[in-house]
Structures are given as structure tokens and as C-alpha cells.
Write a structure and sequence with these properties.
mainly alpha; 2 domains; 11 helices; transit peptide; PPR_At4g14850-like_plant; repeat; RNA binding; PPR_rpt
Length: 196
């Protein structure tokens, strides 16, 4: 007779979560990615009080994978997202191509964006289009069009610009009130259609 997963119950309290987690451990199913994601998604609802428990779950997971971490980044405040990334790197677990696009949009203050930019370069994700677009958006969201323009003009070092990159720059510059700069970027766009 094989062990089967307990019937999913709605998790509304930490006590229910701990009970469900203990059942999964008892049945040997706690390391299954679907169950781990379910537990972690509950914990991400209130990161200030649940972050330590979530960090313990991730740190003791027998087969950690970036797919367990990546969905949590957008749900966490920047300070917790940075701590989660530090935990990920300490395991050691390398970020994948989904990590930076999930992590960068909520990154602030500026020094956190700069640190993530340095890590992105170090790990070789500067040529990954989605990571580059997230970096552009993060600099623009932190009101630093000069840094976004440097990244944009550099093309990420790998020629990774796409229509989203161009649109991110135009939209971000417009939001900052830099309409002339946005028009200049728009005029330089290699491909335009009715939507752009």
C-alpha cells in the first residue's frame, strides 16, 4: 500500500499549515515540489510573521530548486526578497532565467537594484531579454532614467533588446515626465507597428 498525499485542505492558519506539513513529512511527501509550493505560497501571504518558517522549509528541502524560490519573490517585500535570494545563494543554488524577472520589479531602494544588477552581470544574465527588461523597469521605477538608459544603450551586453525593452523605456520615461527623451527612444525603435 503506497502513501498518498493528504486531501488538500484550505490552509487558513499557521496551526493548520503546521499540521498539514507534519502529515506531509510523515508520509514522505514534504519534498514534493507541488506540496512545498503550496506551503510556501501560504507563508508568502504574511511575510513579516511567516518568513522565518518559510526560510527553514527552503533551507531544509532535500532537493531545492529555483522553481521553489521564484514564485515567492514578487509576493515579498524587498527586504525579504533580498534575504530569500541570499538564502538561495547560500545553499548554494544558482538563480535561473526566471529569478531576476521575478525579483527586480519590486526592488527598491536603488542600492538593492544596483546590487541585483551586479549579480545579474556576474552570473551572465545580462544577455537574457526578460532579465534585461526587468532591470530597465526597476531603474525607471526608482526614478533613475540615466541608469536605465546606460543599460538600454548597452543592449545588455548581448544584444538582447526586444520590443518590450523599447516599450519599457518609452513608457518609463513618459511616466517620469521625460517626454522628449521618450520620443527620441521611440523614433529610434527599429520595428514599429500600429500598437507601438
Amino acid at each position: 500500500m503506497s502513501a498518498s498525499a493528504p486531501t488538500p485542505i484550505p490552509l487558513t492558519t499557521v496551526a493548520e499549515l503546521r499540521q498539514h506539513h507534519s502529515q506531509l513529512v510523515h508520509l514522505g511527501l514534504a519534498s514534493h515540489p507541488a506540496h512545498a509550493r503550496r506551503l510556501l505560497s501560504f507563508l508568502a501571504r504574511d511575510p513579516d510573521s511567516h518568513f522565518p518558517y518559510a526560510a527553514r522549509l527552503l533551507a531544509h528541502h532535500p532537493d531545492p530548486h529555483p522553481a521553489l524560490f521564484n514564485p515567492l519573490f514578487p509576493a515579498l517585500p524587498p527586504r525579504h526578497a533580498a534575504r530569500l535570494l541570499a538564502l538561495m545563494l547560500s545553499l548554494p543554488l544558482a538563480p535561473d532565467h526566471f529569478t531576476f524577472p521575478r525579483l527586480l520589479p519590486g526592488a527598491h531602494p536603488l542600492h538593492l537594484v544596483a546590487q541585483l544588477h551586479a549579480l545579474l552581470l556576474k552570473l551572465g544574465f545580462h544577455a537574457h531579454t526578460q532579465s534585461l527588461n526587468a532591470l530597465l523597469a526597476a531603474y525607471l521605477a526608482n526614478a533613475r532614467p540615466d541608469l536605465a538608459s546606460r543599460v538600454f544603450r548597452g543592449g545588455g551586453g548581448g544584444g538582447a533588446l526586444d520590443v518590450v525593452s523599447w516599450t519599457t523605456m518609452v513608457g518609463g520615461l513618459c511616466k517620469l515626465g521625460l517626454v522628449d527623451a521618450a520620443r527620441e527612444v521611440f523614433d529610434g525603435m527599429p520595428e514599429r507597428n500600429l500598437v507601438s
